[in-house]
Amino acid sequence: MPDGRPAGRATTERRDAVIERATEMFLAGERIEMNELAAHAGVNRNTLFRWFGGRDRILGEVVWSITAPAFDHVARTADGEGAVRIANVLGDFSSVANRGSAFAPFVRREPERAFRVMTTRAGGVQHRILARIVAVIDAEVAAGRYVPELPVDLLAYVLLRTAEAFVYSPIITGEEPDSEKVRLSCAALLGVAAHFLPAGVGVPAGAGRA
């Protein structure tokens, strides 16, 4: 390299510069354009596609760079223990996602792409969120506070898909997103719905197990 940096390091720095610039554009509510990103990194579009595989993956990296610290904060601060804590993590995270000032314009501007980036392998986001949810469940299991009735990987997937149904309801059903429905639905799947229902509201037999 002319500046003396190893080729691998220079490429990593340019890739990072692409994500940094794309994140700035995303947070500003701007459409992320490949031509602008390529020019910013000093490469051509073909190189950009070789690095990331397309615009969806760049968007996925941007979304994940915002999502990961938000999820980690929620996982540290969620109330309760055992199944209650797991339900609260999903509910709190959904609330953060619903309030995110950059996500709502993205969903309105490009609903199909937003759904694809966030909920399929194309964006590289979903499997990372799944890993975070698995870690939350594993922590409660290891502490002896929760005994799952499904394999943890499957349980995490079911909980995430349940959350997505309400977070992305504007795309799926046209309804407003509702984080409290996420919390209650996940609690029901985990057997602790009674913990979140108002006093006197009945739940099916067998609910309320920790």
Automatic annotation (TrEMBL):
It comes from the Bacteria. Residues 81-191 form the QsdR TetR regulatory C-terminal domain. Pfam families: TetR_C_36. This is QsdR TetR regulatory C-terminal domain-containing protein. It comes from Tsukamurella pseudospumae.
